[in-house]
Design brief:
Blueprint lengths: L36 E9 L10 E6 L2 E6 L5 E7 L11 E7 L7 E6 L4 H6 L1 H5 L11 E3 L2 E3 L2 E2 L12
Parallel strand pairs: 1-8, 1-9
Antiparallel strand pairs: 1-4, 2-3, 2-5, 5-6, 7-8
């Protein structure tokens, strides 16, 4: 008996978290009115520059953790406390984990702070990133808010790290 060589239909993975996650106020690791609180806003964009409106992002550093779903415009936001620099070891940064449709594994990147130019220049991880791509890891100051867009692919693709 001859077997048919018809390909199986493609499928994407998830998202499975839309129903239960995140919880209320998950995007705030600290009270927004507390000293040192920093609000970070951005958009998650695919390779064509289109918004990804059904993803989940987690941000952490030390004992801080926050989680936010992207809205229909791909927007996300977090309120965190800026971590301290570790002299001679690393500039202040936050670790970002991205979970989105079509990703078999989560993506990991970092948010560095724009007001830490000297520490950023000395950071050993940033030093490994090609100079033309470092800007994809450094947030931009926009008034009282830091802006950090994440591009999954394309010319402006954010630098991602292996686990």
């Amino acid at each position: 008996m001859a077997r048919s060589r018809v390909p199986t239909p493609s499928q994407t993975v998830g998202p499975f978290f839309g129903f239960a996650l995140p919880f209320d106020n998950d995007s705030e690791a600290v009270d927004p009115t507390s000293p040192g609180a920093v609000r970070i806003e951005g958009q998650l964009l695919d390779g064509a520059g289109e918004v990804v409106g059904d993803a989940l992002l987690e941000v952490s550093n030390g004992n801080q953790f926050a989680r936010c779903r992207t809205d229909p415009e791909g927007a996300f936001h977090f309120t965190m406390r800026k971590p301290a620099a570790v002299r001679g070891a690393s500039a202040p940064y936050l670790t970002v984990t991205v979970f989105a449709r079509g990703l078999l594994r989560q993506l990991i990147t970092r948010i560095y702070f724009p007001d830490e130019e000297e520490a950023n220049r000395e950071d050993p991880v940033l030093a490994l990133v090609d100079l033309s791509r470092r800007h994809t890891l450094i947030a931009r100051q926009d008034g009282q808010v830091l802006n950090f867009d994440i591009h999954l692919q394309g010319d402006q693709e954010t630098v991602f790290f292996a686990r």
